[in-house]
UniProtKB/TrEMBL annotation:
CBS domain boundaries: 408-467, 469-523
Organism field: Methanosarcina mazei (Methanosarcina frisia)
One GO molecular-function entry: homoserine O-acetyltransferase activity
GO CC aspect terms: cytoplasm
Name of the protein in its database record: Homoserine O-acetyltransferase
């Protein structure tokens, strides 16, 4: 395949039709065989993981992106279930021609272990007792969640994920994936998150949990089949929801507006003075500001879709999250190999930008290719669910940026200049290669020999390899963009390039075939 065809494909990566919905989707369920071991030392039997898939896997299943949801999310990240009015929770970036383009990628999202949307959690039936787990459900961690996801990924036959992405608690899962299974993740996108939960973040979680456990209807976690602790759960949600917003967004959305029912003869509540409402004031302390009514609405709706015990377990898992080792985040990220995009939100005070910057600093200290970006938004923490334009631009450019290191073959063969043509010929035939870098004793690049050179040598009855080496050899570095390698190959009519490090040592080889295969994924 001509290399020139690849150039146009790269140029067109950001062009195309307007983003579309994935349409009607359905959830599936995978049951993990045997006991599932937890970080606490306990285990669970019959663990189920709810998941959805958007797009198709390619032949070698190398185009899969795993989406990790936030605290109270679920597997339904995009499209519509039959009869739905609203799409999945991250529909703004998942679908044909969207940031996570389902024409190119296969996108998977699963409900976390401990959740209440199809995956095993406190509201599930304990197979050993036949009763609901309740608070007999063992303590879980973020690592447990991604270990369960790994079981699903293995079941689907995926050896390596092209990318893992998520915001908030989903970002924690992204970080944990790259720490626990570095060989399984090529690219990582962590948004509005932290690598170590701070005391302030723990404090908000603690208040929410106390609101639930202080509700008499919680009944020690045994409320299934009875009245649920809706008051406590709603209050927990209200507290949490405040942290997802910002002062600017609340000012813009609500200001000091009061409900119309508390305004006598006018709707211009923003400019009214307190004396104008004196006749409406009472000691009942009913919610009369619009922001109060909004929070009540959010709390009430939440109790209709979420389990109180799941909220307890998941928020506690967030509290326990800490990827530092011996007090060092640099040490905690020491084994990470994935390329990173870390995105913060300017107005996020739950997971403020400095925490994303700490992640990038620790990754960079380990030699990881990590890019930091900040979304400018007044929406606060929730901006990762709302800022479609900025998110799409950052995610698209990151996913489509392919470096030489992404496609080069690290299992390559070399020869030295004092070896024979017969040896080089036999090596090419045995290993089915057409290019052999010629290296010095120190591993430095001295030239290259091709199958065409061997053929010419035989025809001319040349016996010494040193006589046919091409010393004016073209090469690339692993951190260069693949378009650069492609242009060199096209300009000089060659089909392979040695990849060297800063000391001119050969560390791999990139071929036109590997580039063409890559382009096939994105075309």
């Amino acid at each position: 395949m001509a290399i020139s065809s690849g150039k146009s494909s790269f140029k067109n990566l950001f062009l195309g039709k307007k983003g579309q919905s994935v349409g009607i989707v359905r959830s599936m369920n995978y049951k993990i065989p045997g006991p599932f071991d937890l970080e606490s030392g306990k285990n669970l039997s019959g663990v189920k993981i709810e998941y959805e898939i958007y797009g198709k896997m390619n032949a070698d299943k190398s185009n899969v992106i795993l989406i990790c949801h936030a605290l109270t999310g679920d597997a339904h990240a995009a499209g519509f279930h039959q009869g739905d009015r609203k799409p999945g929770w991250w529909d703004i970036v998942i679908g044909p021609n969207k940031a996570f383009d389902t024409e190119k990628y296969c996108v998977i999202c699963s409900n976390i272990l401990g959740g209440c949307k199809g995956s095993t959690g406190p509201s599930s039936i304990d197979p050993e007792t036949g009763k609901v787990y309740g608070i007999s459900f063992p303590v879980i961690t973020i690592r447990d969640m991604i270990n369960a996801q790994k079981k699903l990924i293995e079941y689907l036959g995926i050896k390596q994920l092209f990318a893992v992405a998520g915001g908030s608690m989903g970002g924690m899962q992204v970080l944990q994936w790259t720490v626990s299974y570095p060989e399984m993740v090529k690219k990582a996108i962590a948004i509005a998150t932290t690598a170590s939960t701070t005391p302030q973040q723990i404090a908000f979680g603690a208040i929410g949990r106390k609101a639930i456990t202080d509700d008499p209807k919680w009944n020690g976690g045994d409320y299934y089949g009875k009245k649920i602790p809706s008051q406590g759960l709603a209050l927990a949600r209200m507290i949490g929801h405040i942290t997802y917003l910002s002062d600017a967004s609340m000012q813009k959305k609500f200001g000091r507006l009061q409900q119309d029912s508390y305004v006598a003869g006018t709707k211009d509540t923003a400019s009214a003075s307190l004396s104008e409402f004196s006749s409406e004031l009472s000691h009942e302390f009913a919610p009369n500001f619009q922001v109060e009514n909004y929070l009540n609405h959010q709390g009430d709706n939440f109790t209709k879709r979420f389990d109180a015990n799941s909220y307890l377990y998941i928020t506690k898992a967030v509290d326990y999250f800490d990827l530092s080792k011996n007090g060092s985040l640099i040490e905690g990220f020491s084994g990470v190999t994935a390329k990173y995009l870390v995105i913060s939100i300017s107005s996020d005070w739950l997971y403020p930008p400095y925490q994303s910057q700490e992640i990038v600093s620790a990754l960079t200290a380990n030699g990881v290719d990590a890019r930091y970006e900040e979304i400018r938004s007044q929406y606060g923490h929730d901006a990762f669910l709302l800022e479609e334009g900025q998110l799409s631009y950052l995610i698209r450019s990151f996913l489509s940026e392919v470096l030489v290191s992404d496609v080069m073959n690290r299992n390559f063969y070399t020869v030295s200049r004092d070896e024979t043509i017969e040896h080089a010929s036999r090596l090419m035939v045995k290993e089915c290669v057409s290019h052999l870098p010629v290296i010095s004793e120190e591993g430095k690049l001295e030239g290259i020999v091709t199958s065409w050179d061997i053929t010419k040598a035989v025809a001319c009855k040349i016996n010494e390899l040193d006589e046919i080496i091409s010393r004016d050899v073209k090469y690339v570095y692993e951190d260069e963009r693949i378009e650069h390698a492609s242009s060199i190959m096209e300009k000089h009519s060659i089909s392979a390039l040695p990849v060297i490090d800063c000391e001119h040592r050969v560390i791999g080889i990139v071929t036109s075939e590997s580039i063409s295969a890559l382009i096939g994924k994105f075309s």
